[in-house]
Design goal:
Blueprint (H helix, E strand, L loop, with lengths): L10 H13 L2 H8 L3 H15 L4 E4 L2 E4 L1 H27 L1
Antiparallel strand pairs: 1-2
Length: 94
């Protein structure tokens, strides 16, 4: 893989990552996010390229988090939960 980039990560990529990490399925994530499996795969690949490391071990009909994927999941979950909570609060006041 290429060296990691210094660009900020995209929220779409992080949301796709979180869903794949939770479901351990690119296809189920595609259904959940109303995207194609190919689009999810591209988002994850772009995220892995940005980070310079694999986040998932991909097998035949099997997806597992790598050590880097586990670390990212631990960082992403509270951040996305906080964003979602803030958005719900904003919407509730409108």
């Amino acid at each position: 893989m290429k060296p990691p980039s210094r660009r900020p990560l995209t929220l779409d990529g992080l949301r796709a990552f979180e869903a794949v990490a939770r479901r351990l399925s690119f296809s189920a994530t595609a259904e959940e996010l109303h995207l194609t499996q190919s689009a999810i795969s591209r988002q994850i690949k772009a995220l892995e390229t940005e980070l310079g490391t694999a986040l998932f071990n991909r097998g035949t009909r099997k997806v597992e988090l790598t050590a880097a994927g586990i670390l990212l999941r631990q960082a992403v979950l509270p951040a996305l939960d906080g964003i979602d909570r803030g958005v719900r609060q904003i919407r509730a006041t409108q």
